[in-house]
Amino acid sequence: MTKKIFVIDIGNSTISIGIFENKSLYQSMRFATNKDFLSTEYQLMIQASFKQKKIMENDFEGAILSSTVPSLISTFTQVVENIFNFKPLIVGPGIKTGLKIKYDNPKEIGPDRILHAVAGLDVFSAPLIIVDLGTGLVFDIINNKGEYAGGAIAPGLSVAANALFDRGSMLNTIQIEKPENVIGTNTQAALRSGIYYGYLELIKGLVAIMKKELEEDVKVIGTGGDINIFIDDQIIFDHVDIDLNLKGLALLYFMNK
User: Fold this and answer.
1) Domain endpoint, select from 90, 120, 138
2) Same domain for 134 and 160?
3) What is the pLDDT of residue 171?
């Protein structure tokens, strides 16, 4: 039987987990990030999901994890050891990525950005603009030489919306979705319009400026937990892959095992 690998990408808002078999994504699951959870609590959640999906714990040969939340690295290292009885690879200094980085200080690049770049280059030809709609709205650039060339970072859509609700005493939380009209005739509709179309135009505008700066034909890849908010306007992306981070982790596992 082909052994599976277990990949974990820990973000500030979401923990994404993937199970790969024959280098293909077999199953995925997502949990909200909670820095206060104990390893045993995450372990029970994962094992409950395994039981529901009829996944056997002894079918795995290895694991790899990436985290933008440093405090959860040790937590999930313990989770992996408890479930599988082996240690995971950890994305960090010393791990091979096969990626040439043209950044003033490569240590400043979050591991999630590396994962997207590695996976993007595996599937598509450079140059690329990878747009990640998560806790941050992150743009990563792969130039025509296949080098990581930098990017841009803005507050994520949900983060910006929540900041507005927290600071505006007369504003109520809304479900972020595409409104029927740009011009809202009540506060809720106006908020929905401003957030949705404001971020849609922010993405389109930054992509247009980046394309002009690169001076070449570029593929635009969309990913991240909030990508489906723009389900009706995903034409702004040449390709959408919500599991790009998990695929990047699997590639790094096989590159380093």
Assistant:
1) 90
2) yes
3) 59
Number of domains into which the chain is organized: 2
The catalytic residues are 112
How many alpha carbons fall within 13 Å on the CB side of residue 251?
Answer: 20
Which tokens belong to 20? 């790969």
CATH number at residue 12: 3.30.420.40
Distance CA 174, CA 6 (A): 35
What residue numbers bound the domain in which 49 lies? 4-90
Instruction: Give φ, ψ of 170 to 5 degrees.
Output: -105, 10
What crossing angle do the helices spanning 187-214 and 157-167 adopt, rounded to 10°?
140
Q: Which of 131, 119, 134 is nearest to 219 (CA)?
A: 131
Q: Which of left, alpha, beta for 221 (phi over 0: left; psi -120 to 50: alpha)? A: beta
Domain edge (last residue) among 37, 61, 90? 90
Q: What is the pLDDT of residues 133-179, one digit of tens each?
A: 998 999 999 999 999 999 999 999 888 888 887 776 555 677 888 98
State residue 16 phi and psi, 5-degree precision. Answer: -100, 135
